[in-house]
Amino acid sequence: MDEIQLFRILLYVGTAMQVLTILLVCLWPRRRPPTGARTLVAGMMMVTLLGGIGLVTVSVVTRSLFAVIHEAYLILMILLPSVGVCTLWSVLQPMASERRRQPIAGMIGLGLLVPGAIGFHSSYISPYQLRVERETVALPGLLRETPLRVAVVADLQTESISSYEHAVRDTINDLQPDLLLLTGDYFQGSTKRYKKRRSEFAHWFAGLRATYGGFSVAGDTDRVHRMPVFFDGTDIRFLDNEIAVIDTRVGRIAVGGVALRYHADAAQRTIRELARTEADARILIAHRPDVALTLEPDVNIDLVVAGHTHGGQVVFPGVGPLITLSRVPRHVAAGGLHTLNDTPIYVSRGVGMERSVAPPVRFLCPPELTLLTLEGRATEISRVP
Question: Residues 199-224: pLDDT tens digits?
Answer without folding.
Answer: 999 999 999 999 999 999 999 999 99
